[in-house]
Amino acid sequence: MVEIFRALSEENRLRILSLLLEGEMCVCEIEAVLNLSQSNASRHLTALKQCGILDSFKKAQWTYYRINDQFKQENAKLLGYLQDGLKELPTYQADQEAYKKYDSQNLCDCITPQQGLKKL
């Protein structure tokens, strides 16, 4: 339990979680939507995965993340609280708008956020 709350104590991790509550995402999509560097995004995703909140899988060269099914089952009340509470983050609305903007662009053939995105 301590590891879960430690992982949730960082704002960028909460922002990532708020996006993944909408569904699975490729790491490049998370980087683009939140304007995070690859190393920063990976560090936060690793912390969320190590405590059991996230699960990942590969499709070709891309790594996708989603909320772990076992975490959902074992922490349903916490997840419900987070679904409501994350909407209170000051960045929530902008993150959701960015998510909608990039969701239809198939960013898995993207370049880093610092270089810009290219549409397939």
Automatic annotation (TrEMBL):
Q: In the record, what terms sit under GO molecular function?
A: DNA binding; DNA-binding transcription factor activity
Keyword Lipid biosynthesis listed: no
CDD domains associated with the record: HTH_ARSR
Q: Which domain of life is it from?
A: Bacteria
Q: Gene3D superfamilies from the entry?
A: Winged helix-like DNA-binding domain superfamily/Winged helix DNA-binding domain
Q: Transcription: present as a keyword of the record?
A: yes
State the NCBIfam families in the record: HTH_metalloreg
- Identify this protein by name: Metalloregulator ArsR/SmtB family transcription factor
Q: Which source organism?
A: Caproicibacterium argilliputei
